[in-house]
Amino acid sequence: MMTYEEAVGWIHARLRLGIKPGLQRMNSLLEELGNPQEKIKSVHIAGTNGKGSTVTYLRNILQEAGYTVGTFTSPYFERFNERISVNGIPIPDEDLTSLVSLIKPIAEGMKDSEWGEPSEFEVITAMSMVYFAETARPDLVLYEVGLGGRLDSTNVITPLVSIITSIGMDHMNFLGDTIEKISYEKAGIIKRGVPVVSGVSQPEAIKVIRKAARENGSPVYQSGKDFLVHREAALDHGERFHFESSAQSGTFEISMLGAHQVQNAALALKAAELLRTQNEITYTELHLTDGLKKAYWPGRMEVVSEKPAVILDGAHNPEGIKALVTTIKERFSTKKVTILFSALKDKELKHMIGMLEEAASAISFTSFSFPRVARADELFALSDHPEKHKAGDWQLYIEEKLMSMDEDEVVFITGSLYFLSEVKPVLLQKLENSRKNK
Predict the structure, then answer these.
(1) For the whole model, what pTM was predicted?
(2) Residues 227 and 361 in one domain
(3) Mean pLDDT, the chain, whole residue set
(4) 3-class DSSP assignment, residue 415
(5) For residues 80 and 96, what is the distance between their CA atoms, to the nearest angstrom?
(6) Residues 96 and 129 occupy one common structural domain
(7) Rounded to whole angstroms, how far apart are CA atoms 157 and 40?
(8) Which of 242, 267, 294 is the last residue in one of the domains?
(9) Spatial separation of the C-alpha atoms in residues 302 and 413, rounded to whole Å
């Protein structure tokens, strides 16, 4: 038997195979594994932003109603096992290791096949399906798309409900360079007769999704038309909003910050309603209320510390940055806002940095150890902010910043989720050390 470290090492080594869009390889792998995807009841979630938050809202609603819920998400934030979880609890090391032992010979045996070996993401997706079908056996599984939708390895499932959270300009080298092209890829998760919950806002995106749904005979429930959400108040620790649809209405609170989180919560409410309509679940209004209030997703407007004020937000594309800047302007307009930013090279960096500058009193750029990461000096050169800095060592920067912060200052650490996953454990330790030293 291999060790856990060897198992995770083997998975990560498959990154060398790159991203391999297409479903033929995935279907071939799953057939060798007995087609576990056919034994799972699921909800499929695609979108440029908001997938993870929508998953966690829906998961918490279902858990409050007494259901066991599997989730497949990416990337992980603190530990690899998070990607495959049940009721928020990551897959145990021994189960993950057993799955790798099962899949490794099959995957490597596909080397000389027509489609070649499966990629890292395909292997992880297959592992999740075997785990949910054969070992954990949750009542429902929420599958988050990895990239796009149509050719994503998760698109082998036939879900009970499909959700498309948003459409934005990201991963354009794979998905296309227009809203219409990207929408077409996202709409690829729509299956025949399966209802679709849509949170997209652009008219051209809505048109593409409606066309795909019509061709599949799938009903579409569009936010702003078929169900309504009205943000009522920005609370100290969250948001209050009113939701209304044909089957239910109510006022709810969430603990995550930002108007965009209200929209994500509304998608989860509508998806839960459709699951109930299909007689797959039952719930009370209290389950909805408590589930939404308890929902938490790391790295999304996450207040790690109030004094000193430090917030993590994985705004890694223009739409995410726009939502972050809107929230900063609304909630922190009287504060000195300091931003620490790091991102991957394949993003619209100039545009993203320009938006961040609108909200920043000072902005620092750094880098971290990861393929395709932008160097601090590259990011620095793209900035026109009068108070811009390079942070060659982000750990030292954070340590010094925690010791020197003004009372009216709030620090936002943002950009790549891979960066935030490195930062958080270090930040928590440095916060603890700084409190001990005071």
Answers:
(1) 0.93
(2) no
(3) 94
(4) strand
(5) 10
(6) yes
(7) 8
(8) 294
(9) 10
What phi, psi does 164 have (nearest 5°)?
Answer: -120, 110
Domain with 420 in it = 302-437
Domains of the chain: total: 2
DSSP 299-329: TSSEEEETTTEEEEE---SHHHHHHHHHHHH
Comparing 32-36, 77-81, 127-131, the range with the smallest average pLDDT is 77-81
- Are 62 and 174 in a shared domain? yes
| pLDDT confidence band for 300 (50 / 70 / 90) | confident
Task: Give the per-residue pLDDT at 70.
Answer: 98
Q: How confident is the model at residue 147 (pLDDT cuts 50, 70, 90)?
A: confident
Amino acid at 176: G
Mean pLDDT of the 156-170 span: 92
| Strand partners for 339 | 363, 412
Same domain, 193 and 81: yes
> Are 407 and 265 in a shared domain?
no
Boundary of a domain, candidates 294, 324, 344: 294
Q: How many residues does the chain have?
A: 438
- The CA distance from 47 to 278, in Å, is 24
Give the residue from 146, 142, 140, 141 showing the smallest Cα distance to 123: 146
Whichever domain contains 356, its CATH number is 3.90.190.20
Q: What is the CATH number of the domain that holds 35?
A: 3.40.1190.10
User: What pLDDT, in 10s, does the model give residues 268-285?
Assistant: 999 999 999 999 999 999
Mean local confidence (pLDDT), 106-111: 95
- Give the number of C-alpha atoms closer than 13 A to the C-alpha of residue 109, restricted to the C-beta side: 8
Mean pLDDT of 32-37: 98
Average pLDDT over residues 4-31: 91
Same domain for 16 and 146, yes or no, is yes
